[in-house]
Each structure stands twice: as C-alpha cells, then as structure tokens.
Amino acid sequence: MTEKNALPAWPYPRWIAHRGAGTLAPENTLAAFRLGAGYGYRMFECDVKLSRDGVPFLLHDDTLTRTAQSLTPPPNPDPQASAVAGEYTWHTLAQYDAGAWHSSAYAGEPLPTLAQIARFCIRNGYLLNIEIKPTVGTERTTGEVVAHHAARLWQGVAVQPLLTSFDIAALEGAMASQPELPRGLLIHALEDQSWVQWLGHATRLHCQAIVCNHALWNTESVALAKAKGFRLLSYTVNDALEAQRLLDLGTDGLISDRVDYFKPEMK
User: Fold this and answer.
1) 18 is catalytic
2) Annotated catalytic, 188?
3) Active-site residue among 18, 102, 149, 214?
4) pTM more than 0.90
C-alpha cells in the first residue's frame, strides 16, 4: 500500500446508488438500475451470489422469501422445501418475479444475471460495486467464480468493477482468481477485532478500499485507514447531516438509498 499522500487515482464517483435505486424500486433488478441512472447516478452497488449451477445473479438475502416469488409455483408445494436461493439452478431462478413484492408497477421484473447488469453498465458507461454474497459453504468458490465472470465481462473496459465482501474467504477466492480486479473489505461492526486487525486483513487481501458501516468512521479510524493507503467508503448513508460529517472527515464514497435526495454531483 502507498502512504496517504501518494494514493493512486481513484476512478469511482463519490456517490453510489445502493442496490440500484435504494428503496424506490425493487432492489438488485435492472429496473432499479434504470431508475438510479434516471436520477443521474453513474455508479451502482449490487449483491451477487451463485445459482446451484454456477450462474452469478443478483440477490441480497440468502433466501428468496422476501424479494422473489415463483411465477410458476408447483401445484403441491413441499412445505419442507428450501428457500435458499443458491440451492436452485438458474433455469428455476429465472422463473421468479423479483418486482411484485415492491409494488404492482414492477410485477414481473425478473432476477437479473451479472451478465445482464454488466451489459447495461458497460453500454452506458456506468460503474459497479459488486458485493459478493456467498451461500453458506460456498464462500471461496463464490469469490473465485464471481471474479472470473467479472474479469471476462469487463475485459477491455477502462474501469473495472470494485469487488467487495464481508466474507474474507470470498475475497481470498476473488484475489486468487483475478488478482488484478480491485477489492474492498466490508466491515459491519468491529466486534472482537480492533481497527488494526481489520486493516491487517485488508492489507493481506491487497484491498484498495475499506467499505464500512458509516457510524464506524471517525477521526481516529479515518486516520488509521488513510495511513495504510486505503480509500474509505460508507454504507448506507441516507441522512444529510451524516453525509456531511463523512465528507468533512475526508471519506471517498457514500452508498445511499436516497437517490432522489442526494445529487450525484454533490461534493
């Protein structure tokens, strides 16, 4: 890592739309990306996991229960059947409605693949933060496969997607698979580890960024992370006073649901 006075150029904008358009559209869908873009956002955050047959697709939760429902439910559903998304093939997942839970206006919106989101972003010059969301037991494999597909899909594109995860094994897989892709370590809470320990993980993983719960950034943590040469991003920033606090601290990126309130050109 370089010292804070010699940070390499950072190609990403300050404002990033959370899951496409925050809560204004069904999260992690192409419709959400289109809406976020309509508000002027040029970079989006999304969650990516693997189907049982290895197709990277967008979904935040481990299960389909909250944000997706089958368009062709079985006539005699098995009450013991798993709702874990990663246990289904992509052929099955492609039959799910990922929009009706949000509102009738989005009924029929499908779960998108990473390839579909990549096409949308690349053709329109948008940037992407891919949060790797592995199904339990597939952490390293998910990191490897998502990174492999990202490198393939963005081959020849000037600015590569930023790969992030809370899961260290997933980031290890991404690093082993495609070491040239930029990475960021997600941190929700310090728990039983100090900032020094978390920064040690990020250094070992050759991360370019620390992406953490906005409340964790303060004068001390910002100084520690900057001294190690990391870029500093925050999630999920929906309050104007908190956004200003983070900007005053000198952080580099804010992931927000409030795409209708925060203007992406704001400094």
Assistant:
1) yes
2) no
3) 18
4) yes
